[in-house]
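S.,

Sequence below, as promised.
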Amino acid sequence: MRPEMVRVALFKGAETLRIDGDGVLLTDGRGEPLRVEMPLEVRRSGSGLSVNGKSVNRLVASAFSRISVNGKGYRALVEVSAADKGLLVVNELPLEEYLVGLINCEISSAWPIEAIKAQAVIARSYAVYQMQARRGQSYQLESSVMDQVYEGADVEDSRAAYGVRETAGEVLTYDGKTIQAFYHSNCAGHTESSKNVWGLSIPYLQGVPCRYCGESNPIRWELNLPMRKAEASLRGAGFQVAGLRELRVRGRNQSGRVQDVVAECSRGSVVIPAVAFRKALGYGTVKSTNFELRGGRDEVQVVGTGSGHGVGLCQWGAKGRANEGFDYREILSYYYPGVRLSGGYGR
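The prediction came back faster than expected:
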């Protein structure tokens, strides 16, 4: 039986690529063999590619072991084509092998094995959901936080492989359909309802208390934010905040996260949803919407806890629960109430 395959975008808009490896089979866009010496230097050329100076429409590289792309190893097949800007690089490989290369990007394979199994199931569920939603497109997943972080074969290890193998084919389903299994790093005590983040109430993403993440990894963060920088970022995101004088929190939801930020400006006040405030300032800067604002006219101090959007499984909470003896099924049913664990990719 042919394994379930997934297409993952590794690079979008790359200027140049270096591809190397042993026993790599190369073909052009029409399936004809491409006879060029390794390593390859690939560039955009007109509407196609230049491979070591030779013009081709598309490049497909496949190998039994691994293919090196810009110094990182990937399994199975790598496809390079011209994108709107630069090059699009897609790795097509069996879903279960993709998951093994994902575990150490999202958590650590040194964590308790039940937490690794839980991560394997939710990553598989998320991937299967996106594969169905993006069927027929040039790729189904991105290799970044836009979907799931994936860095290829170099970060695989035996514990990651064991966690994936022990849960092979298992996904979470609700009403017979594979769920969009969102997850995040650290919820700081209570996971978040999808309604508060994306405006859509999903039965299995309602938010639950989580007492383990704070014990194992109490993420606290703060930053000093100059008003001029805040104003530029918010204006760049489309908010009319000319002459920004003050930022303050308005309202918190059930999980304790901020609902809105009020921006006092020279022409009155502007209400900014906290989710949009975080996006405007940058997810890496404002790590969650669980924060306080302190400060004066020139600078505001943002003091917060937790990391990520807070929806679905809390990874550090799952680690804490696994340390307490919960198995992966119990962990999953806690963070996604009402779901079922189904085999065979939910079919």
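Residues 44 and 314 are 41 Å apart (CA to CA).

Coffee later?
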